[in-house]
Design brief:
The complex is a heterodimer of chains A (about 120) and B (about 110). Chain A is mostly beta strands. Chain A is built from no helices and ten strands. Chain A starts with a strand and ends with a strand. Chain B is mainly β and about 110 residues long. In chain B, the strands form three sheets. In chain B, strands 2, 5, 6, 9, 10 and 11 form a six-stranded mixed sheet that branches. In chain B, strand 9 and strand 10 form a beta hairpin. The radius of gyration of chain B is 13 Å and the shape is globular. Chain B starts with a strand and ends with a strand.
Chain lengths: ~120, ~110
């Protein structure tokens, strides 16, 4: 596709339910990032994938959060037993190491509301 | 370790006044520094990168290795500059981007 695509755009879920957020990075981009943006707050790093290397999971706030990247392309962020404090906009970004001028491209985000 | 620090969470300036958004970084190698911007209801997008030494929408940023800073400046702020600004560092080893926590700029008419 032309850019990073995230789905769904909006998700309302009940407290305690599991949710899956999807990210389709730009084709050929080896790096993929997940961030969280809470209301009025800045970016909070969650997890980083680079090629076939082990992901950097240092930003995941609890063991309820996990992410996978299948085939080096699409990524899914899963939040189990959602809590109200999980409500935020979840952003995905991808970047390429090949280009002279590297740049991170962001998706439009998934707005998660836990009620 | 915090690699990118933006000390100001909120910044307000009057239209036509100069604006400076501060960014300091910590990195042992040769960093690539960027400024990203997020306008209301739009996705995060690249504003400028230090390697290009460019001016975008009147904004400039100079990499100061001695002070490990990459402050974003504009001589005359406009209302349309109101947005969230993020400073970012790209680490050549590991190919990872590190973002600051962001500064929300409000330009008062």
């Amino acid at each position: 596709g032309a850019g990073v695509s995230q789905s769904p755009s909006n998700k309302v879920t009940e407290k305690g339910k599991d949710v899956e957020l999807r990210c389709d990075p730009i084709s050929g981009h080896t790096a993929l990032y997940w961030y969280r943006q809470s209301l009025g707050q800045g970016l909070e790093f969650l997890i980083y994938f680079q090629g076939n290397s082990a992901p950097d999971k240092s930003g995941l706030p609890s063991d309820r959060f996990s992410a996978e990247r299948t085939g080096g392309s699409v990524s899914t962020l899963t939040i189990q037993r959602t809590q109200q404090e999980d409500s935020a906009v979840y952003l995905c970004a991808s970047s390429s190491k090949v280009r002279r001028y590297t740049e991170a491209f962001f998706g439009q985000g998934t707005r998660l509301t836990v009620v | 370790a915090q690699r990118v620090t933006q000390p100001e969470k909120l910044l307000s300036v009057f239209k036509g006044a100069p604006v400076e958004l501060k960014c300091n970084y910590s990195y042992s190698g040769s960093p690539e520094l960027f400024w990203y911007v997020q306008y209301s209801r739009q996705r995060l997008q690249l504003l400028l990168r230090h390697i290009s030494r460019e001016s975008i929408k009147g904004f400039t940023a100079d990499l100061n290795k001695g002070e490990t800073s990459f402050h974003l400046k504009k001589p005359f702020a406009q209302e349309e500059d109101s947005a969230m600004y993020y400073c970012a560092l790209h680490a050549n080893t590991g190919n990872q981007f590190y973002f600051g926590t962001g500064t929300s700029l409000t330009v008062i008419p």
